[in-house]
């Protein structure tokens, strides 16, 4: 792997700023304090450092002559209106020498003063949490008490040192193509977690006196600014404060990086690098800089290959035939090879290839037709492809603006179309099917009941002023991405219609039933499939957590003609199933491995055969076992059933059971299963003697 960090810059700003103020007293002079602090430089990242301006309190330990003459023990000194004060006032005793030590921001430090002497406080043990704690320390003395006849006393002045080190990261775009931008996110660094330091030495801050390092902690730096341009450098969101360490410590740094070509992600991955040979010194700030380029951006360290060109032929001109789909009033009727502003609604019947160009609305133009407003009115059968539609700046109080509005009878196909700034991206009112592929839709998308079947594949639904997805009839969404804020509204689904989501995401995460709204009381089948076709006879195979979905075998067939599994487990591990419906399969759940498996099923409905071997530990809670073509429950090992229901005709198979099957408040055909009625109530196969418990 290429060495990523090309420069390490140590920055130290250690300039003490002290203020003095004379206090006139009568009798013994009180001991007063004035807090001074080391300023730190400012930069673009969020800096957790404490400064002279921001320090609000510190705690003081003090003794007179030697450590047995205790004057202060962790006395809190606070700032009020620029003055420092404390509660338990102590007074100077003439003829004695005083020693003081102070700590600030030490919530994550353990203070041990057993070894304190005139040089310092003793021993400190510090633990790194999130890197936002700035540990400060100062010690002064000896100070001679004012003479007995003195009328003023100097304040005790602390000049605090940062006891830790400060770190940040900067990333430079090292690509030479100005169209290539990089985006770095989720920067994390593994650092030593705890260490202790003896501050009873002179000039303790001039070298690293931290020792007894133990454990590691992961500190998050956030993101760098998105899409850094060629030659530009961006800092991470946050600076973090960590333990100083010598150059024998190895730091592990991870971050996510994406390479954009325009707005398209060309490459993305997670980088892990090690920082070696760097000593982090007390009170110093470090900027780890990295240049990302074609030779080091990939996760495995391989170099990106350059795109190269060659000319092999220039074709002869060929006379073109007549074009279709002319945008009347928007572009010249002899060509589609120009972007244009629509001066009236486009009436389309047939095929429109936009050739990658854009049709934009014109503010002030009336697009109202038959009580709606639309930029393109497509009469089925029709197709629209390779076009961007932008309704920016157009608004109608009464109707809103449609990007594409469909009417007529027949099917309509929309391919490689982007629609922005419209009330409705697509408002489909034709009679027939609707197919939308490889497109981006911003705005409301609604499909009336006359649209028999709708299919969306590789479609991005993005958030805008309007952001509803509202189907009415049978709908399939495959490889679609719904942005956060998009409302998937099933309230208008026709009774008995179905909607299927295949490999879909919501806000970048797998889409679940929790992402759907307004579906209560609607008779609609909702399927969340992670795969469209069965793999190795299983619709869902070796997935640790399966939840909030319907797994429907439908008309799927297996690759070898054997029984289709809804949930198929062939590897050891812990598997959790929650709020899942499995139907139209041979096996609802089938475990087929000699490795140890823990199976936990809750709040689900299993139609078909459920079977697992002797190496499986299983529990079922609030599970309904319903009859399909197959209606068997065949455990091999000890199993617990809690609040489960068995439909009449469902068979419990004891032929392979080697443990005990425990029933806890379960029912069969609506009647509670008990030891007294088990023999006459439950349909069984095999001898259950000694194999059941209640």
Indicate the mean pLDDT: 80
CATH architecture of the largest domain: 3 Solenoid
Give Rg in angstroms. Answer: 36 Å
Distance between the termini: 61 Å
Largest sheet: 18 strands, mixed
Task: Describe the structure in brief.
This protein has 694 residues and is mostly beta strands.
Structure, described:
The chain has 694 residues and is an all-beta fold. It has 4 domains: 15-163, Immunoglobulin-like; 166-292, Immunoglobulin-like, CATH 2.60.40.3740; 340-520, Pectate Lyase C-like, CATH 2.160.20; 538-693, no CATH class. The protein is built from 1 helix and 54 strands. The strands form 6 sheets. It has an 18-stranded mixed β-sheet that branches. Strands 39, 41, 43, 45, 47, 48, 50, 51, 52 and 54 form a 10-stranded mixed β-sheet that branches. A hairpin with a 5-residue loop joins strand 4 (57-64) and strand 5 (70-80). The chain is extended and about 105 Å long. The two termini are 61 Å apart.
């Amino acid at each position: 792997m290429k060495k990523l960090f090309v420069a390490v810059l140590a920055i130290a700003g250690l300039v003490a700023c002290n203020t003095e103020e004379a206090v006139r007293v009568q009798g013994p002079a009180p001991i007063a304090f004035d807090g001074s602090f080391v300023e730190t430089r400012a930069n673009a990242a969020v800096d957790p450092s404490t400064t002279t301006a921001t320090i609000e309190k510190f705690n003081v330990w003090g003794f007179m002559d030697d450590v047995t003459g205790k004057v202060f023990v962790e006395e809190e000194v606070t700032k009020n209106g620029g003055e420092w004060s404390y509660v338990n006032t102590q007074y100077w005793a003439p003829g004695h020498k005083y020693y003081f030590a102070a700590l600030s921001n030490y919530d994550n430090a353990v203070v041990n003063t057993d070894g304190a002497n005139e040089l310092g406080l003793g021993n400190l043990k510090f633990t790194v949490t999130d890197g936002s704690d700035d540990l400060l320390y100062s010690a002064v003395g000896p100070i001679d008490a004012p003479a007995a006849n003195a009328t003023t006393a100097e304040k005790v002045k602390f000049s605090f040192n940062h006891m830790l080190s400060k770190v940040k990261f900067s990333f430079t775009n090292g690509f030479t193509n100005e169209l290539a931008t990089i985006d770095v996110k989720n920067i994390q660094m593994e650092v030593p977690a705890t260490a202790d330091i003896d501050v009873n030495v002179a000039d303790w801050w001039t070298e690293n006196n931290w020792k007894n390092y133990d454990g590691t902690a992961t500190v998050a730096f956030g993101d760098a600014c998105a899409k850094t341009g060629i030659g530009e450098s961006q800092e991470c969101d946050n600076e973090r404060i960590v333990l100083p360490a010598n150059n024998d410590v190895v730091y592990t740094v991870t971050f996510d990086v994406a390479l954009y070509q325009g707005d398209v992600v060309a490459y993305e991955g997670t980088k892990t690098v090690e920082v070696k040979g760097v000593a982090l010194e007390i009170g110093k700030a470090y900027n780890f800089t990295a240049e990302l380029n074609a030779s080091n951006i990939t996760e495995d360290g391989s170099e990106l290959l350059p795109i190269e060109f060659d000319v092999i032929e220039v074709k002869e001109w060929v006379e073109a035939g007549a074009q279709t789909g002319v945008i009347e009033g928007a572009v010249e009727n002899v060509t589609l090879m120009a972007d244009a502003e629509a001066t009236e609604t486009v009436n389309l019947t047939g095929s429109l290839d936009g050739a990658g160009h854009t049709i934009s609305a014109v503010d002030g133009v009336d697009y109202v037709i038959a009580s709606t407003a639309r930029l393109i009115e497509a009469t089925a059968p029709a197709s629209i492809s390779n076009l961007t539609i932008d309704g920016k700046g157009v608004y109608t109080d009464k109707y809103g603006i449609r990007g594409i509005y469909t009417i007529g009878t027949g099917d309509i196909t929309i391919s490689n179309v982007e629609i922005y700034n419209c009330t409705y991206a697509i408002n489909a009112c034709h009679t027939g099917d609707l197919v939308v592929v490889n497109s981006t839709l911003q705005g409301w998308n609604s499909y009336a009941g006359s649209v028999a079947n709708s299919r969306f594949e590789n479609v991005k639904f993005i958030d805008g002023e309007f952001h509803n997805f509202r189907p009415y009839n049978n709908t399939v969404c495959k490889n679609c991405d719904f942005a956060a804020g998009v409302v998937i509204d099933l309230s208008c689904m026709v009774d008995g219609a179905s909607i299927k989501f295949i490999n879909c995401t919501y806000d970048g995460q797998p889409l679940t039933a929790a992402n759907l709204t307004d579906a209560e009381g609607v008779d609609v089948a909702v399927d969340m499939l992670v795969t469209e076709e069965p793999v190795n006879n299983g619709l869902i195979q070796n997935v640790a957590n399966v939840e909030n979905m319907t797994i429907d075998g439908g008309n799927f067939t297996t690759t070898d003609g054997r029984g289709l599994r809804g949930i198929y487990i062939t590897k050891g591990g812990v598997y959790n199933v929650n709020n899942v419906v499995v139907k139209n399969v041979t096996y609802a759940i089938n475990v087929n491995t000699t490795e140890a498996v823990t199976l936990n099923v809750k709040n689900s409905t299993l139609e078909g055969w459920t079977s697992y071997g002797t190496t499986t530990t299983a529990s079922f809670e609030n599970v309904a076992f319903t009859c399909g073509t197959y209606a068997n429950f065949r455990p091999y090992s000890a199993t617990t059933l809690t609040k489960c229901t068995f439909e009449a005709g469902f068979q419990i198979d004891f032929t392979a059971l080697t443990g005990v099957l425990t029933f806890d408040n379960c029912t069969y055909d609506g009647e509670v299963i008990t030891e007294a009625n088990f023999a006459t109530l439950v349909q069984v196969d095999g001898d259950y003697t000694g194999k059941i418990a209640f």
